[in-house]
Amino acid sequence: MFQRKYIFGDTAVYYVETPVEGHEGKTTVGLAMYPAAYPVPQAEALRCDSLVQVAFTGDEGLIDYTFGVTMRNRAATLLKVESQRADENGVVTILTDGKGNFYTHTLLYSAKTGVFTVWVRYENRTGEARTLELLESLSLSGIAAPSLGAKATCGLRLHRMTSAWSRECRMKTDTFAQLGLDMSWARYGVKCEKWGQLGSMPNRGWYPFAAIEDASAGVCWGIQLEAPYSWQMEVCQEKETCSLSAGLADYEYGHWRKNIPAGAGFETCKVYLCVKKDVLGVCNAIVHEQERILTAPACEEEMPVLFNEYCTTWGCPSEENIAKILAAVRPLGLDYFVIDCGWYKPDDKGWCNATGDWKESRSLFPHGIGAVSEAIRAEGLLPGIWFEFEVAGRDSEAFSREDMLLKRDGKVVTSKNRRFFDLRLPAVNGYITARMTDFLVKNGFKYIKIDYNDTYGIGVDGAESLGEGGRQVAEESLRWLGRIKAAVPDMVIENCSSGGSRIEPKRMGMVSMCSFSDAHECAEIPFVAANVSRVIPARQSQIWAVLRDKDTPSRTVYSLCAAMLGRICLSGDVLNMSPEKVSLICEGLDFYRSVKDIVRDGDIVGIDCDVTYYRAPYGRQIYEKQLGNRKLVVVHALQKPDAVEVSIAGYRLVRAYTDIAYTAEDGVLRLAAAQEPPAGTPFFGGVLPGEHGELVFRAGAFLLEKET
Fold it and tell me: What is the spatial distance between Cα 373 and Cα 323, in angstroms, rounded to a whole number?
């Protein structure tokens, strides 16, 4: 029986061959991980199943009660190790079924972050075509509670992140008991918790993250999946231990089948995996790994501050109003200026449904948009422009070009007012090159905001299955990022999709930053921003601080402090700012610049939020990030009038940005209580503001340093 154990940093990695119960003489080889300090008594007792989870059309199931529940543990998983090589950088295992199906399972290790990167490649050497219906990127098994001697899953918790428009990446925690994940009295009858997302907006419903934690033992397994298209994750249990797997959505879930001709292969997306003490430790490690491998233009290194005019002009930018905005923001010392949607607006139609033709408006830009780009550069700012190049709006000519559009079952895919270009077609690539790439080069834009505001769903025609058709189009979308960079070297690319609907790791690894959410000027921005900070690097998380003429100083501070959790992007009413307001904004930006290193490279050490209802917020959030002997504390309080206290024992206050009275003494940072109670309708857990009710905003950012 094949068994190997490798130590990487503080993690022990086990490869374990295990008999398949009910199938005499048949075994699978599994992958398990535990803290290196934890004494795993017998590896075979971990009850591992196959580290390669694969299924072909017509495969038999190895376990009862699985059809319609999971495609794991089909006959194709009966594999033997052909070879294995290991060094300090990881382990590469080649497995085969002896019939010409070969799999290369790669596990790479980053000593800097303690994170493993895992993926699988299939090669068809059978001499005939095979049809894949499942090939997962990762299957980690043998998971049980160390606090119970790794003999049962009792007490384990599953952490996931729910996502919806303007409500991205909110943590949801369930006990295994609540999910019914346990072993039956007879030790058979699979229980599977399966979730994911279908379509081309991968951060919708769920974000591709999961963690299993034994809090009593201080052990947490965590993963994050590259997922540019439909994806799935599964926690499955039949015996004493469970498995955690992730990958492209399979045939039963995502209608994915792929024909692999003889001599060809298929490679999965990657999974980032680690074992840490708690879920925050998992998140920090995986984010640091993403930061480690990220390649961005040199101008991005110092996290420049942006201005985007969308919440100023609301889709109607022009040569005239941009000139006024540039003059108004000159005192703020900004770095980038982005022209958002509407620059292509026809004279007789609105901007929203006119996407797809990409003809600049001569009414809005009488001297050409290139002249405005040059004016932005003349202010010392990097000029940016908005595109939603993958779709055609109902009011565009392209909307009727059915030969260029995606179809499902022979019918053009139409979602309300959008249709989708078939990016696989050479004619479409030529069209986009002429309308977008050549436009960028001609007009000197060095920043592109790529938006994407709907999904084509379960899949499209043009391949052996709907799911494979959809996957191919998503891959072409990623290839366009490379084409843009080739056309404009050092292009800064912003990934936007109705906010954060495409902020999965693969796309994020190819862009400079993302729009974290469409919660542009909502009170819940700091809560959403904190949630997103668990899964993407802070220097990639563009957070809007929208300024309004009616804002009180407290509201301005609240907005700027929220944006300090990532990359600050200003917008809003800037044409009539008072000197006092300009000074308050400059003070906030100056504070931000003094803590950028903590924002970018620090570890999140606390996110303490007691707000339940984001749309009727009542409570406070304390966000803490640490780098070396320095700590950043950002506090937001809404409606709840109580004073806010934060323990700062062992630290001294160096600097603060707030308009709220506070003290920092005896190891406690204390923000004063609100002077007036909130107005509105109270309900369990909050206060619903009245129709004209004003929220009570309190916020502050504080730089601390360890006492010597």
Answer: 11
